[in-house]
Design brief:
With about 300 residues, the chain is mainly α. It has 17 helices and no strands. It has helices at about 5-15, 25-35, 40-50, 50-60, 75-85, 85-100, 110-130, 135-145, 150-155, 160-170, 175-180, 190-200, 205-210, 225-245, 260-265, 270-285, 285-295. The structure holds fe (ii) ion (2 copies). One fe (ii) ion binds next to helix 7.
């Protein structure tokens, strides 16, 4: 029997994503809006109102304890005015991605907890972007939201192998990334990178997805300083998300902040501890967002 090369195996799983409904054009329209500093509140309102089911999800999230628009509004316009375009972008992109990438739960991997992990990583990425002066915060949010998207593709199209990886990670008390390495399996980082490349996401987002576990690699001669910074931001945000223990992404160990990133981004211990405390307070109500999306 002919054995397939790793490259062929990646190609097979990426080709299978043709079976998924394509991401709605609203994702790309939102990306264009958030990157247009001249875009008006009305442009966001028109875009979101065009899709009644998205509008409903946006309102549910906006009314959750985390975003907390006062007075339980049923008006997209009011939600946008109160929250501002950056937060409305976060809400709309999260609701769209969440709605369009559905999968069944398995013994080791529950989708709701997975999206919770992804959403918290997105919020941590955005806050780290602020802290580390990375200008494109919406890009940081999107990279955090999608950093583990390869896992959901794995779960949908190769659940047997994915279950094996999660079982190994949980039994051996290691990370999914280490489990993938030890089992010589395909990697969720590479699957996520290739799938998002097919979906035409911006290059810096693709790189952050591909390398969010490669702490020890120095990419400075391959990528721009901003691209390296975004990789570090998403790597740290993922670690933070595990430290805060909100959501679940196939394993539950906590990792120390890698020294390589500390040095590259010049983060002192005190600065990190202060940041962590602030973030913990800020994210306390974040679970209400997923709860609001899943309520009937
Ligand atoms: Fe990951
Ligand atoms: Fe993760």
């Amino acid at each position: 029997m002919r054995t397939l090369s790793t490259e062929q195996m990646y190609q097979i799983i990426v080709d299978k994503t043709d079976q998924l409904p394509s991401l709605p054009s609203i994702v790309y329209e939102l990306l264009a809006l958030v990157n247009d500093s001249m875009a008006s509140l009305k442009a966001y309102e028109d875009l979101i109102s065009r899709d009644p089911s998205l509008a409903l999800q946006v309102l549910k999230m906006a009314n959750s304890a985390f975003y907390g628009v006062p007075g339980e509004t049923d008006s997209i316009q009011k939600a946008i005015t109160y929250l501002g375009t950056e937060k409305i972008y976060q809400i709309a992109i999260t609701a769209t991605v969440f709605e369009n990438l559905e999968a069944d739960d398995s013994r080791f991997f529950r989708i709701r907890e997975f999206w919770q992990h992804s959403f918290v990583t997105a919020l941590c990425s955005e806050q780290l972007a602020l802290e580390l002066n990375f200008e494109n915060r919406s890009s940081a949010f999107l990279s955090g939201l999608l950093h583990d998207v390869g896992k959901i593709v794995f779960q949908i199209f190769n659940s047997e192998s994915w279950n094996q990886i999660c079982a190994y990670a949980q039994q051996q008390e290691t990370s999914v990334f280490d489990a993938e390495n030890n089992l010589n399996a395909l990697k969720h980082t590479e699957i996520g990178y290739r799938v998002c490349q097919k979906w035409n996401f911006p290059k810096e987002v693709l790189l952050a997805i591909r390398h969010h576990h490669d702490y020890d690699k120095d990419f400075s001669s391959h990528y721009s300083a901003d691209q390296v910074k975004l990789i570090d931001i998403v790597s740290l945000a993922n670690i933070l998300s595990h430290t805060l223990n909100i959501g679940h992404s196939g394993y539950n160990i906590r990792t120390e902040v890698p020294l390589e990133i500390v040095e590259r981004q010049n983060i002192s211990r005190k600065r990190w501890v202060d940041f962590l405390m602030r973030l913990r307070d800020q994210l306390e109500a974040s679970e209400s967002v997923m709860a609001s999306l899943l309520e009937n």
